[in-house]
Amino acid sequence: MEREGRRRRVACTILAIDDTDMFYRVCAVCERTISTPTCCLCGSSTKRLFRILMSVATDSAVLTVVCFDRVARLLFGCSADEFFHFVKLHPFSGLTLNEVLEGEMFTMTLSKPMNANAQHTRVASAVPLSSVFRPAIHLLKQCYGLPHAS
Ligand SMILES: [Zn+2]
To answer: Structure pTM?
Structure first.
């Protein structure tokens, strides 16, 4: 285990992904987190970003970690909006998502939350250990027999 300040790099296996709450909304322009349909500051519409809670196993512990948009996009292979619409069309894709990602191994850089309100260790980066790793959306499309699954 390699430590760099409050960050550490560990080999992790994905155990489960909380597929019930994967997104939050921000303003498409100023990127403030908002819960209204349009941004109250600049009036722009919103977009979704990923915020994924998952449990991972290291060689010594099981941790609940949170994965924000930049890292989640690598795992999922698409934008949060695209994934949201896919899930809406395929109601069981949350389950399938767990099936396709469970057991995948990554070298993850985990960083301790800077502020006391953030409860979960966050994933600063995730590099798949398998050279044949394919992002979840490709595997899901394949499971559902959709064209353009590459
Ligand atoms: Zn705005």
So the answer is: 0.87
